[in-house]
Amino acid sequence: MNRVLDPLKSMFARLRRHPGAASDAAPKGRLDRFTLVSWGITWFIVICALGFALWKTQTAGAANIPLPTAGPDASQPQVNLPPAAAQSGNQGAIDRALQLKTIISGTRARYEAVTYRVERGDAMLAIAKEFNLKSETILYVNTQLEDNPHNLRPGMELTIPPVDGLYYEWKPDDTVDAVAAKFDADPEDILNFPGNDLDLTNPVIKPGTKVMIPGGSRELRNWEADLVTASRSNTGSTGTSDFGGNSCGGGPVGSGFGWPASSHVISGNGYGPGHLGIDIQGNVGDPAYAASAGVVTMAQGGWNYGYGNVVQIDHGNGYVTVYAHLSQINVSPCQGVGQGALIGLIGNTGNSFGSHLHFEIRYGGSNINPLEIVQ
């Protein structure tokens, strides 16, 4: 810029020092025209010089801006900013590819069944709790168990449904209302369950389709009914039992129920459909006690429909208790016992999956939940 302006400054300085130099060589009229032309040419040169200098300045500044690299890889995702971002005024900001990350709190909802392999030490109650299901749901779905939680074995693969209920294979003449009524379920739950993937505008289900019936239930085989309730006879006794009489006479009458083992922990299966008793934690050889006073009406070894070595006590007030899977029996039929008397040792006989005491309370021949009685 200075190289352009310095000669112009020198020319103007000479004109100021010798204003009459041009007038000596020409008349006044010619001098005026010459002066005007000279000044015009001078201003034109000045303007051109200033424009050239400004252009050089911009060119030099642009040279310092790094050239763009190769264009984006076509395989990379392109992000289109929403209109609000485009109008925010950040026109000079650098666009970046966004990496979206979803944070999910709690457990993700599951709509499909999963497979669970039974391991040694597993029990139906623990498996059901792990998947937040009821024990009977696992029995409904896994027919290989034959409605008996004691049929669990290491290595067995179980189908674990996403919610409580059961699966049903659709038949040609089935309707949603009829199937729901059959399994005591809500038709809307069947239609709206995402895992069934039904078109709610036209919920047609093809025959042979495996449909989840949320909240559905069915009758489970009552395996405990295979072991009859053995009660003492009323004749000549102080008891009140008058069903399933046997040769045992009178004896102690119970009053209140305590725990039949030192442990009060449910280690295997709780009370519910398909398991009309509780499994109490215990090692082989741990003592089993009479829950209340009464008369022993059964003390029998062997398989006994999966009960293994089993003892029954009639408490003379309509209640009968059952103690199963014993490793040893310490009482005999028609023997009177008091509450807390040693009747045998905890074991793993019969259809048992690990050592424990299977304990039942029956009233009038029907099972009730022991946890509502024992203290």
Care to describe what's here?
The chain is an alpha+beta fold and 375 residues long. The chain has three domains: 2-55; 114-214, Roll (Membrane-bound Lytic Murein Transglycosylase D, Chain A), CATH 3.10.350.10; 223-372, Glucose Permease (Domain IIA). Helices cover 23% and strands 17% of the residues. The chain is built from eight helices and 14 strands. The protein has helices at 2-17, 21-25, 28-63, 83-86, 124-130, 135-141, 176-182, 187-192; strands spanning 114-117, 157-160, 165-169, 210-214, 278-281, 287-289, 294-300, 309-314, 319-326, 328-329, 336-337, 342-345, 356-363, 366-368. Strands 5, 7, 8, 9, 11, 13 and 14 form a seven-stranded antiparallel beta sheet that branches. A three-stranded antiparallel beta sheet has the order 6-12-10, with no helix packed on it. The termini are far apart. The relative contact order is 0.09. Residues 20-26, 81-106 and 236-244 have low confidence and may be disordered.
